[in-house]
Amino acid sequence: MESLRYRCAVTKSESRKVVCGKHGETPATFMCQHLTNGVGCGFHCSTAKKSPWPDAWCAACEVVLNRERRWNDAAAAFANIKLLCTHCYDAAKARNSQPSLRYLGAPAKPAALEKLFHTWVHETQERNDNCKIEFGMGAYEYDPELATITFSKAGNVQSIADVQMVGSFSTNTNTWLWGWAKAHVPRLIRDIRYLRTFGEVRGIPNWTNDQAFAADEFDAWQFTAAAATLLNAQAVYRMPQDYMRFFLVLHNLRRPE
Which of 4, 197, 216, 249 is a plausible cystine mate for 55, CB 3.0–4.6 Å? Predict the structure, then answer.
């Protein structure tokens, strides 16, 4: 198979390095834009050379590659290969390699998505029930700048969690708006932005919509349960404010020190 590195038109050698702003200098690795910017997108890789970090691409790129039969200009343009450090590569591989999504397809069949989302809703409910028992989730205090939520009972702090904003549901207009299209605090949507690429690769139009669109509250719970599963969150929370319902995923639930 023709190497993705060739299609990148980058002059390189096996000793080529990349300097990452977060992880420093490591060997250079190559991935499609969808793996780099997404979650749950499937993972395919080159077998031309034995490497801990083979050139890699998503399920949608695999469809295009099979159609084109080789890495030609059309396949390369769709993949839009990105240069990563080894640590970012490993993180992207982990985000996109869930066994339960291996046969989902790109685009995914609606019946398969419906079945998967149904499963995720039930799994998320079970996780929430367990977290309520272990940590308590009573009255809350939300801090968007710190991206945390604090739960208390009778004035005593029960637990604290880091949060990300999946999106908001308006009971006035019966519409949903994704957090990545709205939130002004970057840490609130640090991983939520990956969900848009999941929608692109899996062919789910509403998951790529940066405007409010018609939905009901069950849709909001379903979106949030899917986000919780894809992002490996501990729990979810619906935060009501007037006619708005803000849906959060919770990480790092902990007792106060």
Answer: 4
Residues 51 and 130 in one domain: no
Question: Do both 149 and 205 map to the same domain?
Answer: yes
If asked whether residues 65 and 162 sit together in one domain, one would say no
**Which residues span the domain enclosing 84?**
4-101
Residues whose CB falls within 8 Å of the CB of residue 218, separated by 6 or more in sequence, listed in order = none
DSSP assignment letter at 181: G
pTM, 2 dp? 0.90
Please, which residues bridge with residue 45 across strands?
A: 56
Count of structural domains within the chain? 2
Among 78, 101, 124, the domain-final residue is 101
Q: Where are the beta strands (DSSP E) in the chain?
A: 17-20, 24-27, 29-31, 44-45, 56-57, 82-84, 139-143, 148-153, 156-170, 175-178, 213-214, 235-241, 244-254
Low-confidence ranges of the chain (pLDDT < 70): 1-15
pLDDT on residue 185: 87
